[in-house]
Amino acid sequence: MVITIIGSGNVAHHLGLGLFKAGHRILQVYSRNLNPAKELAKRLKARATDNLHTLQTTADLYLICVSDKAIEEVALQIDFEPELIAHTSGSISLSALSRFKNHGVFYPLQTFSKAREVPLNNVPFCIEANTPENKTRLSMLAGTLSGKIYELDSEQRKQCHLAAVFANNFVNHLYVLAQQLLKEKNIPFDILKPLILETAQKVQQLAPGEAQTGPALRNDIQVIEAHIEQLKSDKLEKLYRFVTASITEVSKSKPSEGSQIK
Amino acid sequence: MVITIIGSGNVAHHLGLGLFKAGHRILQVYSRNLNPAKELAKRLKARATDNLHTLQTTADLYLICVSDKAIEEVALQIDFEPELIAHTSGSISLSALSRFKNHGVFYPLQTFSKAREVPLNNVPFCIEANTPENKTRLSMLAGTLSGKIYELDSEQRKQCHLAAVFANNFVNHLYVLAQQLLKEKNIPFDILKPLILETAQKVQQLAPGEAQTGPALRNDIQVIEAHIEQLKSDKLEKLYRFVTASITEVSKSKPSEGSQIK
Questions:
Q1: Helix (H, G, I), strand (E, B), or coil: what is residue A87?
Q2: pTM of the predicted structure, to 2 decimals
Q3: In this complex, which of A160, A199, A216 lies closest to B191 when CB atoms are compared?
Q4: pLDDT attached to residue B257
Q5: Cα-based distances in Å from B98 to A244, B34, B86
Q6: Residue B244 is inside which H or E element, if any?
Q7: What are B5's strand-pairing partners?
Q8: Residue B254: which pLDDT band, with cuts at 50, 70 and 90?
Q9: Long-range contacts at B233-238 (CB < 8 A, ≥ 24 apart)
Q10: Which of A109, B7, B161, B217 could make an S-S bridge to A124, C-beta 3.0–4.6 Å?
Q11: Phi and psi of A227, rounded to 5°?
Q12: Confidence class of residue A259 from pLDDT cuts 50, 70 and 90?
């Protein structure tokens, strides 16, 4: 396919490179600021622009990779009828692009930072479009990048995005808090890395409910009280109590299978 | 070394098998109930007992792998002076074994469930003992299992255990909650697995603060409000607001490096 990338952030960067490597031709890269557009365009052998009114009209797909807030504004500035246009957001409805005849959503469910390369072949792509034909076109495109294609409606996709906030953003924040706790006693964060990795690997195989271990699950009041004593901030104490209560509540609704918390 | 394992739970199981495979001889396995002791003893070519007063006194090390609550009770029933005795708990002080002449702590910082094998070679072992000699003995033993040995005092070890509750128990609970959210809209948990894995892999390389992405970090009020609207339970709404505020607070104290949340 001939593809124009709109945006130059993390998603534009990772999808652009992935599509380029998969053999697609990138026609143009747009960004509000010309420099990041040029930087990405160079890597994609494409042309850069900072003016949506100068977009070439001949691409097969215009892929909007800007922040959620900017999608509407970008869409309003596209002054021709594109062959196909899609956004890449988890939380914006398909209908945000309804002024175009052929429109869809091409949402990669993954966390992207420029500092880290992520192979796309394992990334789930959530596809939605206004017609079965457009859905097929986007699914086939996703198939050139990844083996995991999900056809989800806007409501389902938004729920995925919300679940991803819990499983990624909030999880990563717990890593941040754990690091702060270790720092208080001069312990390097490295000591937690194998545990963090195993925690994620464990639920690739076991259901998360079966993988649960720890004092909250065992209702080990002595350890829980000692931990609360150890926590020096009200915020962490509140979070500790809240999540502990939630673990207890969930585990009560279902018998544990005997995993032991270390 | 010749080692007697006291306990037959997840830790006894994983450490016992690891020590056996590393070439140590397991003399006996004790458990309150004879059957689990027999089961594990069989795999370790050891003898089983459910009576601490019948322990053979000739092992080089007595490794206490029972739950935190039971450590004291077990220690009280050991009616001879062992060559060396250690517990494997993150949250119990070294002094819990101070009635023995040679005592220490041998704490593997990992989550263990019987349903899943975990190679020990990457597991951090936290070592503490009442004399430098005993510390050396336990460190050398850990070195036959793993390349990661940390000499930590009881206070540091307890802090590790607390940090591990955040990075493992609480993280896993977020997976449980994410799974519940997906279930509401008939989306399989599988869709989150690559994200969960990448979230953990990312902080093997980047600091957790640099790996953070998402609406809370971007302070994307529109998405945050939409998510809160989507959450059907007061509990999840409370948790969402709390963690979002904490992410905002931490990110304000330090400029972000431009990771974008998907």
A1: strand
A2: 0.92
A3: A160
A4: 44
A5: 31, 28, 10
A6: helix B234-252
A7: B29, B63
A8: low
A9: B235/A246, B236/B177, B236/B181, B238/A242
A10: A109
A11: -65, -45
A12: very low
Given an 8 Å threshold on Cβ–Cβ distance, is B175 in contact with A150? no
- Which of B113, B117, B156 has the highest number of chain A CBs within 10 A, making it the mutation to test binding with A? B113
Provide the ipTM.
0.93
- The answer, yes or no, to whether residue B163 has pLDDT greater than 80, is yes
The C-alpha of B215 sits at a distance from chain A's nearest C-alpha, in angstroms, of 8
Nearest to A185 by CA among B154, B130, B111: B154
Residue A5 to chain B, least CA–CA distance (Å)? 16
Best of B110, B176, B233 to disrupt the A interface (most A CBs within 10 Å) is B176
CB proximity under 8 Å: A 115-144 to B = 115-116, 118, 122-124, 126
Q: What are the two backbone dihedrals, phi and then psi, of residue A123, each rounded to the nearest 5 degrees? A: -80, 130
In B, residues 190-209, which contact A (CB 8 Å cutoff)? 191-209
B207 pLDDT band, cuts 50/70/90, is: very high
The answer to whether residues B113 and A206 touch, using CB atoms and an 8 Å cutoff, is yes
pLDDT in tens, A74-99: 999 999 999 999 999 999 999 999 99
Nearest CA-CA partner of B149 in A190, A153, A117, A11: A190
B229 to A159, A240, B94, B236: CA distances (angstroms):
11, 25, 49, 11
The contacts of residue A215 (CB under 8 Å, 6+ apart) are A223, A224, A227, A244, A261, B91, B165, B169
Instruction: State the Rg of chain B over Cα.
Output: 22
Say yes or no: A232 contacts chain B, CB-CB below 8 A.
no
d(CA B261, CA B223): 11
Residue-level pLDDT at B60: 98
Cα distance between residue A168 and residue A170, in whole Å: 6
Q: Cβ of B182 and A163 within 8 Å? A: yes
From the list B43, B9, B147, the residue with the least C-alpha distance to A262 is B9
Determine the Cα–Cα distance for residues B79 and A177; give it in Å rounded to an integer.
Answer: 43
What is the Cα A196 distance to its own chain's centre? Answer: 19
Residue with structure tokens 């017609």? A131
Inter-axis angle of helices B171-184 and B234-252, nearest 10: 130
